[in-house]
Amino acid sequence: MAQAVLNNFTIDEFYFLPAFHAPHKPDMKPTSAFHRYAMLCLATAADEKVVISTTELEHGKIRYSFDTLEELRRSFPDDRIFFVMGADSWTDIRTWHRWEEVLLMTDHIVISRPGYEIEFGHVTDVVRARIVDLRGGAAPKLLEKSPSIFITDAVNMNVSATEIRNDILEDDVLDRTDNVPPEVAKYIEKYELYR
Q1: Residue 165, φ and ψ in degrees, nearest 5
Q2: Domain membership flag for residue 19
């Protein structure tokens, strides 16, 4: 996904921001932030344009995307920031803390995903006015109104973290290595994660 976004949007660097604990999953016990950080590092080590940020982890608590984006805007005042989310997050965006402000404060890239219909009726007119639909192969025009919300199908992957975790839990073996880099698969097995 990161590579497709880098290629299609001519972005200089792609930052992964692992959450300490996602606020929309308060009842779920997440895998340790340390393990998630380590797996991201293993998965992206070969790509110089992909960086793993510890911004959210360093706060050591549940943190909202709104707060993180505010911090990033202060840290990178001269850069155009693109927040990437999946179609599932777009569908649930109204459950996010200060969701409309989140969508208006930076550019966004919404990645379509098989099984998720991307609708626009659940957002406000102000947000809808910023949507640039790139599905069907349209090339992004990054000088369009800013901030924009780009809807893209350039990343056509049907990979679900939930399915991978469930597979490990049910079979006790990671046999979906086509969706998990080998280094990460070995790490998951070594530390017996998701069991």
Answers
A1: -60, -45
A2: yes
Q: How much is the pLDDT for 28?
A: 56
Domain assignment of residue 67, given as a range? 2-158
If you average pLDDT over every residue of the chain, what do you get? Answer: 85
Give the pLDDT score at 49: 95
Q: Is the pLDDT of residue 29 over 70?
A: no
pTM, 2 dp: 0.84
CB within 8 Å of 67: residues ≥ 6 apart: none
52 close to 40: Cβ distance less than 8 angstroms: yes
- The CA distances from residue 6 to 11, 49, 113, in Å, are 5, 8, 18
Place of tokens 């932030």: 33
Q: How far apart are CA 32 and CA 34, in angstroms?
A: 5
Chain centroid to Cα 159, Å, comes to 13
CATH value at residue 119: 3.40.50.620
* Cα 71 from Cα 67, distance rounded (Å): 6
Q: Give the orientation angle of helix 182-190 with respect to helix 33-44, to 10 degrees.
A: 150
Q: How confident is the model at residue 165 (pLDDT cuts 50, 70, 90)?
A: confident
